[in-house]
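About this split. The held-out portion is used to measure sequence recovery: a designer receives only the structure tokens and must propose an amino acid at every position. Recovery is the fraction of positions where the proposal matches the reference. Here is one held-out target exactly as it appears in the evaluation file.
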């Protein structure tokens, strides 16, 4: 499986005097912090053109880090790192991923140490979401869901399939569905994406009464990068997606060559297999 390889721009031990810490005196008096960042991006255009506008300006990033940490006060290094990484991802064109470390040389632990630090890695991710509805104004429910997800914090809908009408799955004594898929660029974790989908479903009046029963809106995570995840709340890739034409059809329209991280087959290949089974 081929993974995207990014170039790196590194900022090492940028000194920032700011007011972060659990103790009140830290918030009042302030102290020195050392910030290091690895910016994952594509430097090819800048390398070929020698044009700074084709890359990420590390001077501007350094100034942003300095200003942001001085203008905000956090109790925990964890919160400072999380908030700063999020702001940089949201507002830096071309930044795909960031490794961020914030060091605290003067940590008040009353023991001899050089520094304490928090280091995190955050990135943009690509998720594919299945859309479905078989109650009320089905197309409006789906269109409203697309708009709501695109407007959600840390999310951007980049592609949407056309909608197809399909017979119900599982419980067949109900109205036909409209189904589609969308491609989502997001800095949210899978669990946070799921929570956002549930929030949008609830806004549409979704009631979870009967499995595979009628619903105003059904939103499912099909893929999240090449992640394989199984938990009590979430299974990625979606456990049944490779069997369902109402998922594979719209998904094939926007991601025909996306490969299943477990089965190794493309969406196009899985769709062809299911169509062949139905033809038999």
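Reference sequence for scoring:
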């Amino acid at each position: 499986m081929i993974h995207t390889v990014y170039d790196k721009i590194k900022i090492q031990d940028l000194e920032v005097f700011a007011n972060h810490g659990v103790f009140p005196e830290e918030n009042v008096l302030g102290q020195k912090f050392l910030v290091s960042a690895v910016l994952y991006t594509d430097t090819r255009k800048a390398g070929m053109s020698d044009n700074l506008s084709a890359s990420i300006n590390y001077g501007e990033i350094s100034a942003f880090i300095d200003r942001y940490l001085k203008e905000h006060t956090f109790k925990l290094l964890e919160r400072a790192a999380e908030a700063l990484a999020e702001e940089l991802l949201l507002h830096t064109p071309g930044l795909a991923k960031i490794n961020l470390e914030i060091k605290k040389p003067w940590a008040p632990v009353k023991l001899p140490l050089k520094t304490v630090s928090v280091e995190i890695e955050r990135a943009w991710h690509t998720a594919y979401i299945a859309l479905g509805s078989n109650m009320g104004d089905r197309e409006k429910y789906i269109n409203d869901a697309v708009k709501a997800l695109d407007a959600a914090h840390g999310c951007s809908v980049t592609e949407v399939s056309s909608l197809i009408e399909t017979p119900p799955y599982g419980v067949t004594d109900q109205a036909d569905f409209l189904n589609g898929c969308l491609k989502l660029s997001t800095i949210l974790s899978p669990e946070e994406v799921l929570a956002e989908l549930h929030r949008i479903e609830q806004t549409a009046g979704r009631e979870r009464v009967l499995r595979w029963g009628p619903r105003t809106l059904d939103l499912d995570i099909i893929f999240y990068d090449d992640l394989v995840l199984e938990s009590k709340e979430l299974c990625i890739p979606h456990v049944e997606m490779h069997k369902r034409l109402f998922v594979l059809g719209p998904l094939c329209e926007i991601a025909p060559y996306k490969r299943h991280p477990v089965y190794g087959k493309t969406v196009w290949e899985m769709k062809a297999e299911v169509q062949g089974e139905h033809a038999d």
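Annotator remark: The longest helix spans residues 77-91.
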